[in-house]
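User: Structure please.
Assistant: Input sequence and predicted structure:
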Amino acid sequence: MGDQPPGAEAPRRFLFLDASARPDGNSARLARLAAESSLPAGAEQHWLRLDEHPLPPFRDLRHTGDGTYPEPAGHERTLLDATLAATDLVFVAPLYWYALPTSAKLYLDYWSAWFRVPGVEFREGMRGGTIWGVTALATDDSNAEPLIGTLRLTADYMGMRWGGVLLGHGTRPGDVLGDERAVIAAKSFFAG
């Protein structure tokens, strides 16, 4: 984490991974409100829309040759570098069919490859970080359990902390900002 004076903490680096199928959707609006209101002092933030960094379909090469994966390039390299540079990963992911959007699930599938890229030491680089979720949905909160479970179990598997999920309700663009409960929760979400 670089050279720090004794007792000084490195600033936290939040990577917001927007997995929405539309720009500036309800999940992104809620995440931006939370970032503006509750990120720790001095925290850095970086935003990536996964649709602007498309990945090809994931191929499982674990049982091919020596089981290693090639050095990432292009969008995959961008996502890997941004992921390893972050202390906190925020999945900005609307609920699609009770689960993560395709782009977020595909990004997580690539983690399996990054475990096996020589010299990357992906698991070690992620250990101790935090995973968060910000999700907009149109239905009952309980319908988000599969999405929440995926993120929480990913954090557990990786030796990361689970920061929790911020849920908001809305369907049309901007609806979530009318969800008073979500707006109030956003204002302290990252502070906890």
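Residues 1-5 have pLDDT under 50 and may be disordered.
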